[in-house]
Amino acid sequence: MKSEYSSLSLKAGMENNFRVSNLNTTCNDTSYGRYLDNGTRSNLTFHEQSPDFYVVLPVIYSVICAVGLTGNTAVIYVILKAPKMKTVTNMFILNLAIADDLFTLVLPINIAEHLLHYWPFGAILCKIILSIDHYNIFSSIYFLTVMSIDRYLVVLATVRSKRMPHRTYRAARIVSLCIWALVTIIVLPFTIFANVYVDGLEIKSCGLNFPKPERFWFKASRIYTLILGFAIPVSTICILYTMMLYKLRNMHLNSNAKALDKAKKKVTIMVFIVLTVCLFCWTPFHLATIVALTTDLAQTSLVIGISYFITSLSYANSCLNPFLYAFLDDSFRKSFRKMLECRAA
Fold first, then answer.
1. Cβ atoms 259, 166 nearer than 8 A
2. How do the domains of the chain map onto residue ranges?
3. CATH code of the domain occupying 7-344
4. For 63-85, what is each residue's pLDDT tens digit?
5. pTM of the predicted model, to two decimals?
């Protein structure tokens, strides 16, 4: 029988990160946001069922943290230091790397929380960590969207044999600042609701403390994230890339046909990589939102395990981006190798 949506049950135990809530959260006697049901913290419950689980998970998160910090820091360093890397596209890659680096930088705090089974870091850091988590959710996909718009405009200008005088490094910097401002506004509600509280077991937890009616606010927050953080930007990316490939396919030049054919293949491969990796890492996370809103899943070991896998997958996107947008670029590899040689000398 479904229980009442009391404030106690809604403020029950906490997952080690907000993202885990998507599959762990249902609409029966479970809680919302970062919480689980019956005043029992999910990590303790799952620990009883799988003792090795809390050894493996921190290892996975640590690998993601190490690879993400190394890769994104290298991207930031090369773009800022190498003169030839100061391009419009690289400006967006730089901001994408900053967003991912910021998230992986605070990932050790989530690992510590997972191992300690409570939140020892205070209310201010709670708001900061939850805000950064949401910054990562929104900023990554928004910068990918801006990069898609930029590529589409470049292809369009090429087809029409026109120049783009306003496409400058400075303009890209202004656009990037606007994206950060937009993401800040989007994330602000989560920052406001983030708080530390003590549950029925006298355990300090950090999570989203929604006002009454909690069920309404929970569903509203999930729909809010789903639409603004996935549906709109991913739809935009897919439409732009489809139009871009269509224009390239129908593009005719009187000369340099081989270069055009090479450009088609390069763009096609990049489109495939971008969309595949982005959708592979984030689609399960957002589909879990739909599952949480439409079904009543029991809190079984399988469900909790799947939720952690989905969370880890979304984390992994932060360490894959450097390889996708920078390390696959010949100019970046040359600049990176040259800087390493200079440092060694």
1. no
2. 7-344
3. 1.20.1070.10
4. 999 999 998 998 898 888 887 78
5. 0.79
